Predict the structure.
Amino acid sequence: MIAPKNILITGATGGIGGALALAYAASGVRLFLQGRDAAKLTAIAARCEGLGSIVETSVIDVRDIDALVVWVHIANATAPLDLVIPCAGININTGPNHAGEIWREIDALIDINIKAVIAVADAVMPSMRERKRGQIALFSSLAGYFGLPVTPSYCASKAAIKAYGEALRGGVAADGVEVNVVMPGFVESLMCDEMPGAKPMLWTAEKAAHFIKRRLQRNHARISFPFPLNFGCWYLAVAPAGVAQRLVKFFGFSG
Ligand SMILES: NC(=O)c1ccc[n+]([C@@H]2O[C@H](COP(=O)([O-])OP(=O)(O)OC[C@H]3O[C@@H](n4cnc5c(N)ncnc54)[C@H](OP(=O)(O)O)[C@@H]3O)[C@@H](O)[C@H]2O)c1
């Protein structure tokens, strides 16, 4: 894969999205960065420009799908996108005393973690197929392998993106488009901080971004880390359901 020159990242104000923007920032690289927090977005853009990139920012709420799609089309018309990373996401949990998720939050999560991600991929795909070039990195999570009791909707959203990315990859490979599913474990970020429970094998966002970048360069279908947490989570998906449930409880992920 030739190093990508025109890159679009949603959630660039976040821990992983920001670290990815910085990992790719360099002379000759044009970055299209999205976030909601204008101050954070300006700050990350300035750092990327300091590394030599041309940066265009957009403050959009990704729940506004029409605005999101228009932004992707404008970016792609400005500079045909080589790499698209819809990274924006949220996490919710069952709350104090495991009371249960709140529908308003579930609704937002489905919009942000599933609909907006698929909308971005869908918006850029025809152009990539026509050009016979392009890469789309979709953010799932190790939580997408097996549903965890504290975060049912989050796990469901990440399982959805895993399945979508795997399906898409097989369907567009012949057209020269690469689709990758990224499945991080625990990575330092606001979202991770706000999650209850233990965070074993926590990586910094910088370490995660450089790992992801290297694997994307080699077009790995699934970029899951860190070992052995990724192996453990994968095993939950293939083990008999009763065994997996007991393992989740044993390791303290039952809430
Ligand atoms: N950190 C982890 O441990 C971990 C593990 C597995 C997978 N992931 C996945 O990695 C991705 C990045 O997560 P992160 O850890 O970097 O989280 P983060 O630091 O909390 O960043 C989340 C990003 O999403 C953006 N965002 C959230 N809601 C939005 C909305 N409605 N409209 C527009 N932007 C919105 C935020 O923008 P503003 O801040 O500007 O509002 C921010 O840029 C997510 O898809 C997450 O599920 C993370």
Observations:
- Residues 103-131 form the longest helix (29 residues).
- The chain has a mean pLDDT of 97.
